[in-house]
UniProtKB/TrEMBL annotation:
Gene3D superfamilies: Jelly Rolls, Winged helix-like DNA-binding domain superfamily/Winged helix DNA-binding domain. InterPro entries: cNMP-bd_dom (IPR000595), cNMP-bd_dom_sf (IPR018490), Env_Response_Regulators (IPR050397), HTH_CRP (IPR012318), RmlC-like_jellyroll (IPR014710), WH-like_DNA-bd_sf (IPR036388), WH_DNA-bd_sf (IPR036390). Coiled coil: none annotated. It comes from Tardiphaga robiniae. Residues 24-123 form the Cyclic nucleotide-binding domain. Residues 1-17 form the signal peptide. Residues 155-228 form the HTH crp-type domain. CDD domains: CAP_ED, HTH_CRP. It holds the Pfam family HTH_Crp_2. GO terms for molecular function: DNA binding; DNA-binding transcription factor activity. This is Crp/Fnr family transcriptional regulator.
Length: 236
């Protein structure tokens, strides 16, 4: 498979979620869920495997079952902007133009449920509540994206990192994960490409925050110690 290059990593990935569908799939009745699951398949990916690429034909729908998947766009000069990190239950993309407008790659080992678009469209066409759930999901994702963009805004590197870590913590809490210390499966390059910073700035700022006693960096995790003093002005 095509690989997504990454810089040095914080290490181990987040603990896998239970291998049950989440997101809008969790709202399906038992019979509908069994039927839909039979139409698709669970596909395992290793770290940095690319699921699909920007501009390629969109023949399938994807939803994360286990692990974390990065959603990103690549500019003409090959610079990468990571838009979001998808967690179990998240739909990776709803392609409306017949091609992928973003790319997706596994951040550590992941399992993704995949179904041909035609099969999913046929399934949903007979179940209006499924389409309603998708619309609600899209509305929630747009609202979350707006909130995150506003929170990051024109922030200093310290504020951006704290906002990112607290936002990531809150997402994991909603999944019932242990967040003390906080699992951080992304590489420093991933975080830099998500926040619009350089890798050097991310490394330097994390070290500065640790020296100050704001965070504690552990293998594969970060313990948030005193983020309020930094996060308060960032979230104001």
């Amino acid at each position: 498979m095509t690989k997504l290059m990454a810089a040095s990593s914080f290490a181990a990935p987040c603990a896998n979620a239970a291998a049950q569908p989440g997101g809008f799939l969790s709202h399906l009745g038992a019979a509908d869920l069994r039927q839909l699951m039979a139409l698709g398949e669970r596909v395992p990916y290793t770290s940095q495997d690319v699921l699909f690429t920007q501009g390629a034909p969109a023949g399938k729908c994807f939803s994360v079952v286990e692990g974390v998947v990065g959603i990103y766009r690549t500019e003409c000069d090959n610079r990468r902007q990571i838009i979001s990190f998808a967690l179990p239950g998240d739909v990776l993309e709803i392609a409306t133009q017949g091609h992928h407008e973003v790319s997706a790659a596994a951040i550590g080992p992941a399992v993704v449920w995949e179904i041909p678009r035609e099969k999913f469209a046929q399934f949903a066409s007979h179940r209006p509540y499924v389409l309603n759930e998708i619309v609600a999901l899209m509305a929630t994702e747009i609202a979350d994206a707006h909130d995150k963009m506003f929170s990051l805004g024109r922030r200093a590197a310290e504020e951006k990192l704290i906002v990112f870590l607290t936002y990531w913590r809150d997402r994991l809490v909603r999944l019932g994960r242990d967040v003390d210390p906080l699992p951080v499966p992304m590489s420093r390059r991933d975080i830099a490409d998500h926040l619009g910073l350089t890798v050097e700035t991310v490394c330097r700022t994390l070290a500065k925050l640790e020296r100050r006693g704001t965070i504690e960096i552990l293998p594969g995790r970060i313990r948030l110690l005193d983020t309020e003093s930094v996060a308060a002005p960032a979230l104001a």
